[in-house]
Amino acid sequence: MDMLLQILITGFVIGSCYSVVSVGMTILFQTTTVLNFGHGECVMIGAFIFYTFQFMLGASLPVAIILTMFSCIIIGALMDRAVFRPIVFAPHVNVVLATCGFLYLYRGLARLIWKSKPRFPPTLIDIQPMDLGGVIVTSQDIAILVSVFLLASFFIWIFLFTETGLKMRAAAQSLRGAALVGINTENFFTGIWGVSVGAGAIAGFLLGPIFSIHPDMGESFLLRAFAAMTLGGFGNIGGAAIGGIIMGIVENLVGLYIWTPLKEVASYMVIVGVLVFKPTGILGVRKF
Amino acid sequence: MKGSRSKYMIQAGFLILLFCIPLVTNNYEQYIINLIFVNFLVCLGLAIILGFSGQFAFASAGFLGVGAYTAGLFMVRLGISYWPALLLSGFVTLVIAVLLATIGLRLRRYYLAITTISFTLCMRFFYVNAGKLTLGPSGFNIPHATLFGFNFNTDHRVYYIVLVVVLLFSVLSWNILRSKIGRAFMAIRDDEEAAAAASIDVKKYKLLAFAICGVLGGIAGGLYTQVLGRITPDEFGMLPILLHFVIVVLGGLGSFFGLMIATIIVTIIPELIRAFVEFQELLYGAIIVLIILVAPGGIYGLMLKYSPIRWREKLHGSVEKYS
Amino acid sequence: MEASRNTHSSKFFGTDGITVRFGGLTALKDVSIGVGENEIRGLIGPNGAGKTTFFNVVTSYIPADSGDIFFQGESISHFKPNEIAERGIIRTFQRRGILPDLTALENVMTGCHRLMGDVRLWDICFRSKRYKLEEAEAIRRAKEALESVGILDIAEKGAEDLAFGQQTLVEIARSLVSNPKLLLLDEPAAGLSPSEREHLMGVLRMIASERGISLIIADHVMEFVMEICDNLTVLNFGEVLAEGSPTHIRQHKGVLEAYLGGGG
Asked: Which of B118, B278, B293 is nearest residue A87 as measured by Cβ atoms?
């Protein structure tokens, strides 16, 4: 029973990071209809950039966080301006291929700059793991929970209570309508790209201490994000968030109770399972 | 009649050229050429399903793996000779492709992509973890093919197997594409509704595209065993998926010739920059992004734009003699 | 057996009480239309009246929430789109369902699918005599269709390079090759110059009289519809507002109100 509770808690924590990844992807997809196959690499780059600021350049924690966020938002914005804005009317295959291009590009860059050897960043805050009634909670767990909670609150506040959020909701519903009411869709898209990559970066440095960082780590995050999005229904932001948490829990459950190596494929099985039995996802409504 | 006579001479000349290649290459060069042919076959499968019928199905690497493992396992564990093993690789993959299609046909664009990618990665997981059944994560060696005592134990000898098989299936595919089936594929790709309105049974043709992709991938997998001599699960994961995709889009969707050129280019690049292998991924990424920005129609698109002769790959044969 | 209400099931083509709802919106309400053999029927109405939706329901792209559709005495409501095409009902699209990567000739050849049932995969793979004959036949029919609509000269041009008016004709040619009995034309006159419209009218008249094909033409261009159609059906907000000859409709109070008063 203890074990189960532990799994649930740990799964929830890790799952919330997956949520950040998949929500980042979903926001981008919902507003710009681009499915960023290179999003896993964005997570990876975020993790590496943070590592660089904090350990190779010795910045303090808050400074490192701010600098990482800043860089990644810029990176996302540049990606849009340089590549995705010019090809906005290209057929979907081309856009998908472009995102794959960034996949290769970032992996190659990371391998060049930081080499393939995995790094093991220490946890963000330095306190001893705590024992809460039989369940062990590490400092990283706490860091993650706090960060994700802050991030989620911030995001929900923006989404529901500010003008920017109104624009996002409008664009998500109808792009042309949004343009008609004078929302500058071009700058808006650039901003969304920045947000998406920025979100990936956050997940990156939160998960870094848990999974170790190396240039190939992006692939697994991409698939978990896909699984989360499929669970929650493609394009459904809330669904993606819940899907991420479910993935975190399911993965750990499968790893413990069925067979450890199966953890890897939990994502794929979820994807196929959901699509075979309920293609709209558990919460999903969107068809495309 | 003169026109078609010279056409036949060119084709015959080209064939002779192909058969003479092993006379001028060393082992390494021949290996690369073998690889190009096999890649072409599997990418042709992906091109048919993605480029010609517009379905976002990225299962080519998965089918390649199924074919390779089928042939390899039948040879190694059951002692079957290469030739029936090759046929089996095509057949088994066909069955799996059809099964996959029954799920895949009702899925829309991105769901289909994710499902087929998941399928491929699941298969890879299976190869790694199925223990004795698939002979483990580090792969295994494949015995050479033999025919009446003649042992195909060099790259040059293997080339002839590859050449004949790839030529055969390429011609068959070409014939299929340049017929009403090919037109139906492109119709479905361009405008599914209009295709159905023209009484095209969309489901049937989508299934056919899947089946063809499966057969081509499976046979290519069977050939792969001889070209590499050894198969490992890593050959059939995410990276080949991307590689095939790049080749197909680079060639230009809906183009046979563009595909040929793209396969050659993409297969050769890693070899050319062997010295700078760390730059390989970076180079791929940069090239892909540049292509999308500069030449979105792929090589075929460029050929259409800049060729002095105004031509397109025709989908109807010239049958003036019969009309 | 006495029918309690007027049913069109015995007509050449008829719908009975077709109702289509999208969420909270009723796109078509109780639409009952009967079209006779060899008739040219016009389907008019303000924007959003439901003309394209009607075509979509008839060709089975969207299901009807209630009602029935009859063609030559048979109920066709439950057929798939390609089965309906096989029975001889062919439609064109507002956007011109042209396949941009094919030439005009190839576009028209895709319409031959209905008649090319005999050739097997084997024949195609190995280019048997039977395949070659069938393909030659398809080419012949396609060229003949292109000629009858007057654009044989652009047969080898890529479809995406064609002017909109030419694309319209290509689409009509494609619908001809399969020997249809009923054509549903969705805004064929849209975007055409007056001379192109004249040409189109000639083509459509030829189709109706020489080939005995019935037409249902949904369009906005009044001069066009009034001149070529035998009868008109007016839709407004998804309901049948009026039916009758062009003269009758031109003077119909309700129609005039609908066009000048509310919508459009």
From this structure: B293
Give the mean model confidence (pLDDT) for residues B43-72.
Answer: 91
C115 within 8 A of C178, measured Cβ to Cβ? yes
Give the DSSP letter of residue B316.
Answer: S
Residue in A105, A114, A221 to test binding to B, most B beta-carbons within 10 Å: A105
How far is residue B72's CA from residue B231's CA, in Å, rounded to a whole number?
A: 8
| B253-279: pLDDT as tens digits | 878 888 999 999 988 887 777 767 677
* CATH architecture of structural domain C13-88+180-260: 3-Layer(aba) Sandwich (3.40)
DSSP C219: -
Rounded to the nearest angstrom, the gap between the alpha carbon of residue B226 and the centroid of all alpha carbons in its chain is 16
Alpha-carbon distance of B172 to C196, in angstroms, equals 43
- Could you give the CA distance from residue A132 to residue B198 in angstroms, rounded to a whole number? 67
* Residue B258 distance to chain C (closest CA, Å): 15
Predicted confidence at residue C93, as pLDDT, reads: 87
Q: Taking CB atoms and an 8 Å cutoff, what residues of chain C touch B172? A: 125
Strands of the C231-236 sheet, one edge to the other = C89-91, C182-186, C214-218, C40-44, C231-236, C239-244
* Placement of tokens 């490992």 in the chain: B232
Question: Cβ–Cβ of A288/B288 closer than 8 Å?
Answer: no
- Disruptive mutation site among C58, C84, C87, C113 for chain B (greatest number of B CBs within 10 Å): C113
Q: Cα angle at B137 between B131 and B138, to 5 degrees?
A: 125
What does the alpha-carbon distance between residue A223 and residue A256 come to, in Å, rounded to a whole number?
Answer: 20
Q: Average pLDDT of chain A?
A: 82
C99: contact with B, CB 8 A cutoff: yes
The per-residue pLDDT for A184 is: 67
Whether A220 contacts A212, CB under 8 Å: no
Domains annotated for chain A, with CATH where assigned, are 2-277 (1.10.3470)
| Chain C residues with CB-CB distance to B186 below 8 A | 99, 101-102
* Residue C2 scores a pLDDT above 50: no
B197 contacts on C by Cβ (under 8 Å): 59, 81-82, 85, 90-91, 93, 97
In which element (H, E) is residue A220 found? Answer: helix A218-232
Count of CB atoms within 10 A of residue A64's CB?
Answer: 21
pLDDT tier for residue B64 given thresholds of 50, 70 and 90: very high
> What tokens appear for A138 in the block?
């590490």
C25 reaches B (C-beta below 8 A): no
pLDDT band at B1 (very low <50, low <70, confident <90, very high): very low
C-beta atoms surrounding B65 within 10 Å: 27
pLDDT on residue C3: 41
How many angstroms separate the CA atoms of A37 and A89, rounded? 18
Q: Would you say residue A182 has pLDDT above 70?
A: no
SS3 C41: strand
Residue B90 confidence class, pLDDT cut points 50, 70, 90: very high
Cα dihedral: C105, C107, C111, C116 (round 10): 70
Residue B320 pLDDT exceeds 50: no
Predicted local confidence at residue A174, as pLDDT: 63
Q: What is the mean pLDDT of chain C?
A: 83
Two tokens, residue A112 = 């060049």
How far is the CA of A49 from the CAs of A21, A39, A204, A220, in angstroms? 17, 15, 9, 19
| Terminal C-alpha separation, chain B | 15
- For residue B302, the one-letter residue type is L
Contact A280, A232 (CB under 8 A): no
Q: Is B122 on the interface with A (CB under 8 A)?
A: yes
pLDDT number for residue B166? 94
Q: How many CB atoms lie within 10 A of CB B109?
A: 16
Supply the pLDDT for residue C76: 87
Please choose, from the candidates C99, C106, C94, C101, the residue with its C-alpha nearest in 3D space to the C-alpha of residue C61.
C94
